[in-house]
Design goal:
alpha/beta; Rossmann fold; five-stranded parallel sheet; 5 helices
Length: 138
């Protein structure tokens, strides 16, 4: 399998970061994996690379609860930035929150492709990347 994608994880859980990075490296689903501990770091990266599609992620896996800038605030800023991006980025909200209010809020944000409860397995990651691949072909 080729590794055509840049995958980005915005999550402050170091164990999750390690697990998902190792799973992805073992399955070779990504040519590059970006890890950010909070939304502010990730937003800074997007802004710094706004004109360079080769550095921007294809898929973002976004947590809700993080310090400094949480997932909701990141999305607010992303919506403002999105018109300046020439690359379409898919965002999956990956969270431990089973709060129906969070799910409803996510459903109202068109930039979120899906709301997924952790833990996310390697098979789930592969399925999400495969779904992205199919959407790019069609």
């Amino acid at each position: 399998m080729s590794k055509p994608f840049i995958l980005c994880f915005i999550d402050d859980d170091e164990v999750y970061q390690y697990t998902v990075t190792r799973s992805l490296r073992n399955t070779e689903l990504a040519k590059k994996i970006l890890i950010f501990n909070d939304g502010e770091e990730a937003m800074g990266f997007l802004v710094d690379n706004i004109a360079n599609n080769e550095h921007l992620p294809d898929i973002i896996f976004l947590d809700i609860n993080m310090p400094i800038m949480d997932g909701w605030h990141f999305l607010e800023e992303y919506v403002k930035l999105k018109p300046r991006l020439s690359k379409q980025i898919i965002i999956y909200m990956i969270t431990t929150s089973v709060d129906p209010v969070d799910k409803e809020q996510a459903d109202r944000i068109s930039e979120i492709s899906d709301y997924i409860i952790k833990p996310i397995t390697p098979d789930m990651l592969k399925g999400l990347v495969d779904k992205y691949t199919r959407s790019q072909k069609g």
